[in-house]
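Quick one: sequence plus flavin-adenine dinucleotide SMILES, need structure tokens.
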Amino acid sequence: MSESLSRIAIVGAGIAGLTTALALLQRGFDVDVFEQSEILNEVGAGLQLSPNGVKVLMELGLSDQVAAIACAAAGKEVRLWNTGQTWKLFDLGQDSIDRFGAPYWTVHRGDLHRVLLDACRERAASRLHTGRRCIGVTQHDGGVDLHFASGVARYAAVVAADGVHSQVRQALFGAEQASFTGLIAWRSTIPIAELPAELQRPVGVNWVGPGAHVITYPLRRGELLNFVGIVEKQTWSVESWTSHGTREDCARDFRGWHPLVQILTGAVEAPLQWALLSRPPLERYAVGNVCLIGDAAHPTLPFLAQGAVMALEDSLLLARCLEKCRAPQDAFRRFEELRLQRTAAIVRGSSENAKRFHHPELADQTRAAAYVDREWQPDLVRRRYDWLFDYDPRTIEI
Ligand SMILES: Cc1cc2nc3c(=O)[nH]c(=O)nc-3n(C[C@H](O)[C@H](O)[C@H](O)COP(=O)(O)OP(=O)(O)OC[C@H]3O[C@@H](n4cnc5c(N)ncnc54)[C@H](O)[C@@H]3O)c2cc1C
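Reply:
Sure thing.
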């Protein structure tokens, strides 16, 4: 590694920031991570980690730690919102390992974050700086200045992993606010033992319906069921992008749905409401020696379950580019070449799934089943998902 590349700052200690720190430390880089929160504990609920993301955790030597807090569902199903009619989406379990070279895991976001954080603390505890909100970046010949309320720190390069409201993105590309997509997400976890046997099966389910859908899957070794209910809404009147809602409001959004969905909405505790946001796609992720990754670069609707997975892919590939190229800006150029097209295709595919999951034909008793038959034909499903899961950020040529 050349001397000029040795000091790298990462803004944000979410999944993208911590994974990048670990991948860079693994390659001998000198890394500082700056996180705005004083205390690092992740909110949110479940995350599905498809094999393309799990391969990154394997490369970092964390597969045992994540396996210990994960759940490997046997497969995924599509179910009709009112009748409960069921279709296989795809098999997982051993099939995922055989076909894609890694398991498909579901985890609690807080559990995954804890594994990443523990590994960072073990490998470079003094390099994690909490309560440090980045308020701007400026570039000059000698590198990049990171600005904080308390002063300025100078680095050879900066990786911005500061999420959908990224300050660094604004500094690089202008102060455009993320916009509301017209979709909100209810998120909660339910102790599985409290649910009827049919909801305890080790499968992930996409309940599809007109204007809304529900995703469930087991997590934390099968102790919890993750519940996500996505609903179309005209407006978002709360000031924050996340807020606590009530079980009654959540249940109201799924009135008339199958009795099993009613059981789920009756069981959620203090569900969180998230406004789903989007930004127009970028044509670049880097300017000079500063590069965006994760949600800061390509926020997406979660309907291919690839937001955190893309963050994992970005992290390893960016570290590999920095290892290979002499100058940060060359590394970032190569990173863009590798990532722009794939991440844009994932963001597009996720939006297409929103239309598919909420299609008006699902309201029509006589046409709904035929619509699902048509939209989730096995060869279409393979075309939609195999290219995602097959990807291996460990072996992509840099
Ligand atoms: C309902 C829902 C379901 C989802 N399901 C899945 C799924 O199943 N699978 C999947 O792969 N993805 C899923 N996602 C997407 C996933 O949660 C995100 O894509 C992922 O968490 C992005 O990680 P990140 O590290 O880029 O950003 P974040 O997790 O947003 O982390 C950003 C970090 O930067 C810090 N920060 C922000 N600004 C500053 C600053 N100025 N200075 C210092 N620190 C700062 C923040 O405090 C935070 O710690 C889902 C999302 C939603 C909403």
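The chain has a mean pLDDT of 94. The CA atoms of residues 97 and 103 lie 5 Å apart.
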